[in-house]
Amino acid sequence: MGGRNGGYAVAALLAVAGALAVGHGARDREPGVHYRDFGGPRALWHIPDGDALPASPPSRIEIPGIGVDAPVMRVGLNRDGTVGVPPLNRPERTGWYEHGPPPGSRGPSVVLGHYDDLGGPAVFHKLHEIRPGARIKVTRHDRSVAVFRVDAMERVPKWEFPRARVYGKVRYAGLRLITCGGKYDRADRSYSDNLIVYAHLTGADGR
Predict the structure, then answer these.
(1) Which CATH number do you get for residue 18?
(2) Alpha-carbon distances, residue 168 vs 7, 146, 189 (angstroms)
(3) Helix, strand, coil in percent for the chain, rounding step 5
(4) Residues 100-136 pLDDT 10s
(5) Fewer CB atoms < 10 Å away: N or C end of the chain?
């Protein structure tokens, strides 16, 4: 899978803007203003290679600590080269970037979700409340459940999106969750920042 992951990283570098529209300022909120980043990039330096699972697309994601239990759909690339996101009429869904490894396989798997929509909170509305060590469970099409541990979280301006850190090649089975953060700009109809959660595979259930 090393070659596939490398090509994925190159493609993702061109597609990073896909996370830029995840959120719609329904109530002029500032997601994540009160959270403190934990771990930071240093938390990713010493993650062991560990085991990985055979490739199987995800179907559902659960984050018990923040009340997420949501279906996962595939998203790809838009015509302008940006990463797609779930449609606005499906705010309860998350989107797995299908040109990268599926959750549980070796490499950086990316799942995106809206912070809100015009009707109110969406699936990743409470992502900023996640804590280090929190468990994330991803049910896959082969009926296995990949279990991840949260390592780090950061909120960064969208123009400083850490492409290599999110999409770059890693030897372990990683997971990156992405949504919006920061202030809502009514003129651009977009939030100023991205909130990124990093996790790694610790085991599997149902095998």
Answers:
(1) 2.40.260.10
(2) 10, 21, 29
(3) 20, 40, 45
(4) 999 999 999 999 999 988 788 999 999 999 998 999 9
(5) C
